[in-house]
Design goal:
4-stranded antiparallel beta sheet, binds cobalt (II) ion, alpha+beta, binds 2-amino-4-trifluoromethylsulfanyl-butyric acid, 15 strands, 5-stranded antiparallel beta sheet, about 280 residues
Length: about 280
């Protein structure tokens, strides 16, 4: 997710209350050849997610997941685009339960039955980025956690369904928000989706709620590629960052989920790139 720093604010990837660029930036459209490379990058991300899905179980450390992600990326000649990004110290982000995003893998952090874990994966392959996040259940989870996961995933697909030529970015944002709020859950406002290409974060910013953000007025054109990434919490839309300066959690400690796909706009409708 993209974060715009307030002028004068030091520190990395801080949240801000109104994450809006001052003016509309022009997106970089991708050629069919570039989209083909992004398709391959996206497929690699999906393969890394498949490895995560197989590995997620009670007793596994988030550090093990990070190593497995590293090895899987390497097998396909890809590298993490998170490692070193603003100093981020790992290959993937692993965020458990009330942790929303940017959880740092750690040898001492073991998954346990009933946890949910959001795993965010971004790779660079032949100069292009694929970016996708998914929340996984660790064994049996509560009905509340299951509902949170389903609503968040479905809100991603509601947004993707609006990712069609001549729609605006805000149409995607609104669809995500409406789905989440219709189910009584809370859409996080402090972090956003984004255009994606040679850079992980390109124009336009893709908010998960309708607003007067100027980039919401960006018209979707063939060749535009965006990462749509709803972040949803059970009790509040507000978040805070832990003392490690990375891990973002829900302000009230309630459960959080995060689903993200990289999606290309084509004349034949949305094409999800981060699939096998
Ligand atoms: N998928 C995230 C994003 O869209 C993850 C970036 S976090 C960092 O921005 F690790 F790269 F910092
Ligand atoms: Co992203």
């Amino acid at each position: 997710m993209n974060m715009f720093k307030r002028p004068g604010q030091s520190g990395l990837l801080r949240r801000q209350s109104t994450p809006q660029p001052a003016r509309r930036r022009e997106p970089v459209l991708k050629s069919p050849r570039e989209i083909q490379i992004m398709r391959e990058a996206g497929r690699i991300v999906a393969r890394v997610h498949a490895a995560m899905q197989d590995a997620v179980r009670p007793g596994v450390s988030t550090w093990h997941l990070d190593q497995l992600a590293f090895e899987t990326m390497a097998r396909y000649d890809a590298t993490s685009c998170f490692l070193g990004y603003n100093g981020y110290p790992a290959n993937i982000c692993t965020s458990i339960n009330q942790e929303l995003v940017h959880g740092i893998p750690n040898k001492d952090r073991l998954l346990k039955e009933g946890d949910i874990i959001s795993i965010d994966i971004g790779v660079r392959y032949r100069g292009f980025i694929g970016d996708s996040a998914w929340t996984y259940a660790v064994g049996e989870i509560t009905p509340e956690a299951r509902e949170l996961m389903k609503v968040t995933e479905d809100s991603l697909y509601a947004g993707i369904a609006k990712t069609i030529v001549n729609n605006k970015v805000v149409d995607v944002s609104r669809a995500v928000q409406q789905h989440v709020e219709a189910h009584g859950l809370h859409i996080v406002r402090e972090y956003t989706g984004h255009g994606v290409g040679r850079q992980m974060h390109e124009a336009p910013q893709v908010l998960n709620y309708a607003s007067d953000d100027p980039e919401g007025q960006t018209i979707l054109r063939p060749g535009l590629v965006i990462a749509i990434e709803p972040m949803v919490q059970v009790g509040t839309w507000q978040t805070r960052t832990l003392k490690d300066n990375w891990t973002v959690i829900s302000k009230d400690g309630s459960l959080s989920a995060h689903f993200e796909h990289t999606v290309a706009i084509t004349n034949n409708g949305p094409e999800i790139l981060t699939v096998p």
